[in-house]
Amino acid sequence: MTHSQPPHHPATEQYLQRYAEPEIAIARSVPGHYAHVLVVPTHQEDVSLLRGLSPALSPHDLLILVVNGTCAEDNEPFLTELTDLMTDLHALGQQCTWGRVREMPLVLVDRGASFGAKDGVGLARKIGADLALALYDRGAIASAWIHMTDADATLPEGYFEATERIQTGGYCYPFLHVPGGDLEVDHATQLYDQSLRYYVAGLTWAGSTYAYHSIGSTIAVHARSYAGVRGMPRRQAGEDFYLLNKLAKTDGVTVGQGPPVKLRARRSNRVPFGTGPAVDRIAREGLTTYDPRCFEQLAQWLRKLETAAQSGDGPALRQSLDPITSQALAMTSEDWSTLEQLLDQPTPRQRERRVLEWFDAFRTLKFIHALRDQAYPNRPWAECLKTAPFPLNGPEDGSS
Predict the structure, then answer these.
(1) Which domain holds residue 361?
(2) Is the whole-model pTM more than 0.70?
(3) Domain shared by 123 and 237, yes or no
(4) Does residue 300 contact residue 275 with C-beta atoms inside 8 Å?
């Protein structure tokens, strides 16, 4: 395997100098050269997580585990068990250790008791991804892609091959939730899985640029694109959503096909919102979701935006709005004059780009929520499926 120093990129150098976490200092001490890198945050886990990762990893790939938390006792059993399995140990400083579990090389970053009350999985992913970027910049990683997943994931064989020909800045792997052994949680997780697919299917049908799944365990990001958007947001939850939103507006996001990443259904209170809390809520209350009319309204609005981008006529766009869309936009957008300024760009292509960047994934979600709150309340899941004007792709074919 040949490794050469990648050409230094100004955005990467600037990011590493100004915005990266201090753990990048160990990059020059990590031994060896690797084909690919995988980043996994862990909190209150056990070493069985390695079984799910091993189908994707070869002795030529590097695993970065970032143990995180606010209380040392939460992660002590995992750290003890893992270090007992590790051989060829090298202390790297910054509470980091390189070693092997069987033939699998890994860097263990122990931040198990140093997180503050507002820190969470976003910071853990950022620490690992920043280190991966520094290793790539040093020439220790051949692939320019930083792959991320979670401890409950089982990765398919050939996992890293999926990004080899991708030209965008981000990649979303197909996914499939699989039973974890608790019947109540398994059922609620399957409903949650379907609600995720329903939302993205609705966005796709409406013509949204942001029709992809924001799931942290299924993301890969190109190194330069990662640096260009200033890395992973340091959030307790939703870090995957905001990272992909930035990537979609800059270098684009590809929705993958092929063998899925399998995610084990389980109870979790690791984040304040997201999969764990949603599954708990569904288990208690059942599943309601967005009325399909929210997506019909979104489709109409996006078509009007496209027309306005072609003509540059902001006042005509405003006059064409029905009362429901107008009210939803009033709840979604800070100021209509901002949109009119964007429509004042000199060419249709510039106008279209600026408008799509403005009405991004976050504003799209806010728009759907505004429609839900003021016109179309959530309805039972079965009712929505019957009336939705778009097909719901199932996970059985590996689609996401």
Answers:
(1) 292-376
(2) yes
(3) yes
(4) no
